[in-house]
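In the design runs reported in the main text, the only information available to the sequence generator was the tokenized backbone. The following block is the verbatim input for one such run; it is reproduced so that readers can re-run the procedure and compare outputs position by position.
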């Protein structure tokens, strides 16, 4: 009887908006749900076709496989037996329940900058997620990387936890964007090059990084291979819809847009754009393009006109929101051609969002183009119509083709 009365009282307080525990809790849960969207928790912790946040989706790292754990409130296989202190410590220090050290594939170096109020809201939300019994063996790294104690040394070298502090010289929008990019959004986890130990390279924030046989491109103001030529509206459109006048998202970024950024508030998207537009490039001048008479360019042009121009146009102009623009496109000019090689070999499915539900696709050419053919056509694309980038070699194509087969 007392339990029923309590439930009824909480329900009434929520429905009628009465001040007190239930109303506050509802607001915190909803705020926490949005934090989970900002942090894109489902990308790692929800297996395709599986229950939300039940874990089990392998993540390939340069050191071996890690499997994101079950973070539902199941007491046996999830975080149901955790306290708030356990949860906060995991996000802010990389140390979970019982002193278990986490690997930075769970981006606690970024989450450490989050405000305690946001982490508390996230905790409130995860307490209300459906509990799922799903035992996950997270650490599948080979020896010696499987020794979690090694993270003591890694943290000592690479991790200095510090909550985000606003810059009083910048606007409120800029500070909000900085908070999201560096914290919950953890953009640097993918877009910053890594050292041999897997830590972010000092002084190279958001200059592009390799992961899982993809290349996350440069997000600085570099006018050639970064976002220097993108307006704030271009950035917002890309994050909200998956497409803009320069590019159409695919691969891991398509997943991030589908599950995360397309669901962000417009004000937060504008804030991120304002912050990214203020990140300076490293000042490296654009290289000179290969001469049109280069043998690779001549061979690549013939392949392009035969296989690619129907969609991307003979001038590389593409078709807005359907086929990516290749002319003067930052991703085309990236120093690392990994993503371009992969898309040619395997094809690509564009992102689907509420704003742009159509998902144009690019077919695979790996079955009928040899390594030299792929290298030549990409070399041609990367050095035509205002583009300039290092040539792609047959060896690069061969190596990635073998890696994708594995």
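Verbatim output:
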């Amino acid at each position: 009887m007392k339990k029923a009365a309590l439930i009824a009282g909480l329900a009434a307080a929520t429905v009628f908006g009465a001040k007190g525990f239930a109303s506050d809790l509802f607001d915190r849960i909803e705020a926490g749900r949005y934090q989970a969207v900002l942090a894109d928790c489902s990308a790692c912790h929800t297996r395709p076709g599986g229950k939300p946040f039940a874990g089990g989706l392998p993540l390939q790292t340069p050191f071996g496989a890690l499997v994101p754990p079950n973070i539902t409130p199941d007491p046996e296989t999830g975080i149901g037996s955790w306290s708030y202190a356990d949860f906060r410590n995991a996000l802010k220090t990389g140390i979970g329940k019982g002193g278990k050290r986490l690997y930075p594939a769970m981006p606690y170096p970024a989450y450490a900058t989050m405000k305690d109020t946001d982490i508390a809201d996230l905790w409130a939300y995860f307490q209300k997620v459906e509990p799922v019994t799903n035992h996950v063996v997270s650490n599948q790294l080979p020896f010696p990387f499987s020794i979690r104690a090694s993270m003591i040394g890694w943290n000592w070298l690479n991790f200095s936890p510090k909550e985000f502090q606003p810059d009083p010289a910048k606007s409120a929008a800029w500070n909000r964007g900085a908070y999201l990019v560096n914290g919950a959004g953890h953009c640097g986890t993918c877009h910053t090059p890594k050292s041999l130990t897997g830590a972010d390279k000092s002084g190279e924030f958001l200059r592009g990084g390799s992961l899982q046989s993809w290349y996350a491109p440069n997000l600085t103001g570099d006018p050639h291979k970064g976002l220097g030529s993108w307006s704030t509206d271009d950035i917002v459109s890309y994050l909200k819809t998956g497409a803009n006048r320069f590019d159409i998202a695919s691969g891991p970024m398509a997943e991030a847009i589908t599950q995360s950024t397309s669901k962000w508030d417009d004000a937060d998207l504008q804030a991120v754009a304002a912050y990214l537009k203020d990140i300076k490039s490293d000042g490296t001048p654009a290289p000179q393009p290969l001469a049109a008479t280069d043998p690779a360019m001549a061979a690549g042009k013939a392949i392009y006109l035969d296989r690619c121009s129907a969609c991307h146009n003979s001038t590389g102009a593409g078709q807005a929101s359907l086929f990516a623009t290749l002319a003067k496109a930052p991703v085309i000019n990236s120093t690392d051609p990994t993503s371009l090689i992969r898309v040619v070999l395997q094809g690509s499915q564009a992102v689907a969002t509420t704003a742009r539900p159509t998902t144009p696709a690019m077919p695979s050419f790996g079955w009928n183009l040899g390594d030299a053919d792929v290298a030549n056509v990409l070399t041609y694309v990367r050095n035509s119509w205002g583009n300039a980038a290092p040539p792609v070699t047959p060896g690069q194509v061969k190596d990635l083709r073998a890696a994708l087969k594995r």
